[in-house]
Amino acid sequence: MHIAPERGRELAEEVFGAEKWALLPSESEANFYAIPQDKAIYLSYAGLASLWCVAHAAFHIADIASRDQRAAKQPGQTEIDIGAKLAARRISDYLAYATVLFRADRDWPIELPPPEINPSFDTAGGRVNNVFFGALSWILLHEIAHVHHGDQKLIPVHLLVRQEYRADDFATRWILDEAGNGLHREFRVLMVVAALTWLFLQEKVVGIGSDHPAAILRFREAATLFQMGDRSVGLENAGYILKAVLDPTTPAPQFDTPKQLFEWVSRRLEALFPVS
Prior knowledge:
Largest sheet: 3 strands, mixed
Order of helices and strands: HEEEHHHHHHHHH
Number of strands: 3
Helix content: 55-70%
Shape: globular
Distance between the termini: 38 Å
Low-confidence stretches: none
Radius of gyration: 19 Å
């Protein structure tokens, strides 16, 4: 409801309708799935923890990189290095735990500070949680689409893949179609990218399932709907997040605009996640 509040009534009346839907816990590895015939969506605790860790990383990467990019540079400085600041926030440890959860649920590491439950929005913890709920909204809307469309499991693989594309398209369009062209759209694009970053990490750990498209193909489809300008801060921060999480060691050239950065990172993802 909150990711696209202008469509809240439509979601309640035209999608959910009068029938009761169920949001249920799953004890599995990091995963989210729907049982359309039961009007049920399952969220694993491992999936929620894994996604929160990615949101934690995404917020801090974007915050640090965008601040450093805008800070005064030393004479001759042509790039920024945020590695030390990310290390101080233990971003790699959070991402390592996120990836472990794709294999099986695990207790929260005692050495890692856990999520804050009710932080003020204007704190780092509050903004991390906001990213978490934004990314989770896209994932939930994807699963809602499966139920809404009455998708099936016992059908040929190519039709299962088609259902996944349709669910992605539903989620992305639901979030963006009436977002306008201001900061709301910038934020929502970033939330879609945060969710897709989680999907890329999942694929790195467990591979590509035969009933789902490759993450890079899902990314391509979503990105065609972003429709952002050259100076988009959403694309800028999306580029920082994707680069730092999925391709941290490749030197990046200089860019004149945030859109150029995002397009370069997109090409790097094509090389890192090739599909036949």
